[in-house]
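Appendix B. Raw example, untouched.
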Amino acid sequence: MSHVLRGLAANPALPTALVDRLVAVADPDIAEGLADRDDLSGAQAAALASRVPDVAVRLAYGGVLSAADVDPVAQPDAALALLDEGRGDPEWARLFAVDQDPAIRTRLAACPALPPDVVERLADDDDVQVVAELALWTTAAEPAARLAEQPHAEVRRAVAGNEAMPPDVLARLLTGEGMPPAERCLVCDVEETPFAHDPQCPKPDCVLRPGASCAGSHESTVLETAERGLWNPATPVATVLRFADHPSPLLRCPVAARTDLPPELWRQLAGDPCPAVRAHLAANEGIDDAAFRALAADTGHDVRRTLAHNARVPLDVLTALAGAVRIGPTLLPRIAAASAEEIEELARSSQPAARMLVGERRNLPEEIRDRLAADPDAKVVKSVAPHSGLTEARLRAMVERHGSRVVVKVASNPDAPAALLEDVTRHVPPVAKVFRVVARHPRATAPALLACLGDWQARPLAARHPNLPGAVITELLTDADEQVAQAAAANPSLPADVMRRLVAEAERRAPVAGSAGGDDAPGGR
């Protein structure tokens, strides 16, 4: 029954009076459903958070709880969520900054726009995880240098990933120039060095990261610090260049991703022995034509597929890649930005793979769209089948010519008429994915949805569809599959008398003194 009530609580057609009654008797399951509602009022949210504190954080992040609704002592999680959203009382930050629980202080350290005195206190916290969290998220310039010079390597690792840190601080942190060496790390805090942490460590309470190691110089944390700093766009390019020949590919990958490198370095990285480095270069929109063409011939893992997704790849290179690598049904950035002339050129390409790429673009001229819809290659037809504006006759012709290969995409067309949706559920041979697509389609009729109920994956989707008959929805409330029953309870076409009956059942199961909703209440029994 709990899953049904959770679905009912999220039902968008549930009258306000019944929402009030559910709030008054909410348990954690009902509260989760109520928290999913878009129309929950501030008063309802405050009452729900008071009754089920665990849901208060979701309501705070959802914007329906305000600072006036939250007691920071009784509801610290909700108060921290509001601080994280920038909608909390600054005095709460001062309260949490001296909390005895380091987990509370750590979460506070991640909140934006903290008062300067709170930032200073957290920067001097006795718990290194609190200081590290502050170092990762603070945008205050004042403690930047002090945090970067912190003797604990974990704090420095966090500083390296903070994009608000001054570039000169990041440069010194990565090169070590003018920086005192770190004295401790998480490894040597708890283990006698030298020590290498087993990636399959069986200790359930172990706090060390997989592969962490320290032989006296905090090696793994220093490497992670450099990696984070190199991925940080605020790190000066002059500092990044110093790592182009680093023996670790983990550090050469972020170098290859920088868009402001000199051309000679692109040529060097295009010949890097590690495919991952070359793949990151292939994604780099700053590389020149020579680098694009060199990478187009690279058969290393994921290099050419990544290159195809680069928004600046030359069109002739992309056309060649389309026939050489599996790109899949996606609109590539270069196709999305193509000019009208380029689209026409690709649409007339002798390569079906190139025409398929064009078909993924949803704002094609009608003439090109209709030409691709009549293409002899099923892959091209699949790509264009979901386009709006296609007539029923064209959609049916696609299915007649290409059958099971295109029927799913045809069913997903937003303009697919109800009769066609009914027909595709009867397609021979049946295509399982069709039922899931039709069950989501707003034009699906009762006969089509009833057919979808026969497929176990489509059944919960069809149970939620508002075009399903009310009697069928009511029957599905007792379905053996809880997911189906919950979906039926959330169906806006669930009969009003059934909604009232379910709310009354919830009240009987959890009687609460003074609960709302007598017989004379709006929507009452």
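End of appendix B.
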